[in-house]
């Protein structure tokens, strides 16, 4: 009888790190549509290097400093709308005026990605204008409790709300958010299946279900007014839906009736971890699916046989860091799958999470 993990290949850490470094210097032609979101690509690549243990022993100080400076070069001061980070240099205004501020506004998702990436790079955040960042959160929250990606922008869904919550957590300052309204919006995004959609009345998805569950658990006890973030009945229903999304292949699908996808190996299993149901994940099957998604030239693909990309590489590694193999005596092949522990609430390594919570937090002058 085959023992669990016997069919696992080595986790190709060196090749995956090389893939991430290549993507930091230039995306392949098939990914040029991502050029306008370069900051989030940097987040996935640098965070992958962090989990792979290659950031401080294989990357020079000068290179890490160049990455830090490039991220800070995306920092924008939006006047009355507050500050944050833009997606990439393509929107940078060289000679800003009061009339051009609206075209160089901060982007909520990119601001979350920038802050986490700077924490990975162990920045001291001396350049961060905390009151202005809180002002940006206020500028993005709508009457229904949701958040737009930019102040006054039209795009809004649960992803932006999660980023606002994560930023407030790292700041240890929730004054920029109307929490009750935001919680009410999350509740409206819950579907009959027990998962959460991007917006009210949308189909439940694994990614937005993670986002909803993580956001609710990020709320400090002092702001919950004694209420449960999810009721026991809601928790049970959500767990049931998430568990049903693990396919026989070991991977998780994002929606009912869809195929397994490496990114949902994180989104769904992380939600189960937060809900205290990690024992319901079939770990050997999960890792086998991720093993099969490894691309021979480095990186991890959406599904076996597909091309690798930074997004699926990082999220697959994040899943591995939460669910490492554990079969007693660890041999070299199995040991290659041991990664630093992940903080599932902030979606970064525990060491990076600790750094962010210490250095990003609002300071009393």
UniProtKB/TrEMBL annotation:
CC cofactor: Zn(2+)
Protein name per its UniProtKB record: Prenyltransferase alpha-alpha toroid domain-containing protein
Molecular function per GO: CAAX-protein geranylgeranyltransferase activity; metal ion binding
InterPro entries the record matches: PGGT1B-like, Prenyltrans, Terpenoid_cyclase/PrenylTrfase
Record's keyword annotation contains Ligase: no
Entry keyword set: Metal-binding, Prenyltransferase, Repeat, Transferase, Zinc
Family: Belongs to the protein prenyltransferase subunit beta family.
Domain Prenyltransferase alpha-alpha toroid residue range list: 11-347
Pfam families referenced in this protein's UniProt entry, alphabetically: Prenyltrans (PF00432)
Domain of life: Eukaryota
Cellular-component GO terms for this entry: CAAX-protein geranylgeranyltransferase complex
UniProt keyword Transferase present: yes
């Amino acid at each position: 009888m085959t023992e669990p993990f016997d069919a696992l290949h080595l986790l190709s850490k060196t090749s995956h790190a090389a893939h991430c470094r290549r993507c930091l210097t230039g995306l392949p032609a098939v990914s040029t549509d991502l050029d306008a979101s370069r900051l989030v690509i940097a987040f996935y690549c640098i965070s992958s290097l962090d989990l792979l243990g290659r950031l401080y022993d294989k990357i020079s100080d000068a290179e890490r400093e160049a990455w830090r400076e490039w991220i800070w070069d995306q920092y924008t001061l939006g006047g009355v709308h507050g500050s944050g980070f833009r997606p990439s240099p393509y929107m940078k205004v060289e000679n800003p005026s009061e009339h051009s501020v609206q075209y160089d506004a901060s982007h909520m998702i990119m601001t979350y990605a920038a802050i986490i990436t700077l924490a990975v790079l162990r920045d001291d955040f001396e350049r961060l204008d905390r009151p202005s960042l809180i002002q940006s959160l206020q500028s993005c929250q709508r009457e229904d409790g949701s958040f737009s990606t930019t102040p006054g922008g039209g795009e809004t869904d649960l992803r932006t709300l999660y980023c606002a919550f994560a930023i407030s957590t790292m700041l240890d300052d929730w004054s920029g958010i109307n929490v009750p309204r935001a919680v009410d919006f999350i509740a409206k995004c819950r579907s009959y299946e027990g998962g959460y959609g991007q917006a009210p009345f949308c189909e439940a998805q694994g990614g937005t279900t993670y986002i909803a569950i993580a956001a609710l658990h990020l709320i400090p006890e002092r702001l919950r007014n004694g209420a449960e973030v999810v009721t026991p009945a809601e928790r049970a229903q959500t767990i049931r839906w998430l568990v049903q999304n693990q396919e026989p292949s070991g991977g998780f699908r994002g929606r009912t009736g869809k195929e397994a996808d490496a990114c949902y190996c994180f989104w769904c299993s992380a939600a189960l971890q937060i809900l205290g149901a990690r024992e319901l994940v079939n770990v050997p099957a999960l890792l086998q699916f991720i093993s099969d998604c490894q691309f021979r030239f480095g990186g991890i693909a959406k599904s076996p046989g597909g091309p690798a990309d930074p997004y699926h590489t990082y999220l697959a590694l994040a899943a591995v860091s939460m669910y490492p193999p554990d079969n007693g005596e660890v041999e070299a092949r199995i040991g290659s799958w041991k990664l630093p522990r992940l903080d599932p609430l902030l979606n970064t390594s525990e060491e990076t999470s600790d750094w962010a919570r210490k250095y990003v937090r609002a300071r009393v002058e």
